Amino acid sequence: MNPKLNITRSLFVVGTLLFVQGASLTAQIPASELPPAGTDTGLEGKYDPQNGIAQLIHDKSRESAASKIFEDEHVLVFMPLPEEEVVAPGHVLVVPKRLGARNLLDLKPDEMRDLLVAVQKAAIAQKNGLGATGFRVQQNNGLSSSQTVYHAHFHVIPSFGGKAPGTPAPRRKLPEAEYNEIAAKLRAAWPK
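Above: the chain's sequence. Below: its structure in token form.
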């Protein structure tokens, strides 16, 4: 049997097992601007090429570069922008660079493979670079499942011991110096 196929299958199984249903993230879209319930779930809705993730994929400015941890021709890994509150320091998003992929159902098998490899590498960088003692992978599909940006993305959220299991961390904005230090540590610890 093809070893690459075995690795791909193994990554898919491991990735599937890693999806953990966690506490809902605060919506990035104000409630007043969300479509009425049942009208656009994000599974069938139109892809907005101007969504925040799509803009970041094309943004080559120095400011956006500060948030980017890893990038190749298929995948972008970035920290939420400094002005956004994070669940935990070192929280990253892993996204396909192809525009039009609204959710998991729109991803092609090779995109899934590339994304799950990047998710695994992000967790390794969090462990080795930040001392994370665990991590959570969250991926939402459709408005009814708390997806607020209709560009497929995986959250990789590190955890650091010292709290009771299931205790949510308080969301906070990171000061610029801390943000830059965390980004540098993740980049330095990114597996080759």
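The chain has five helices and five strands.
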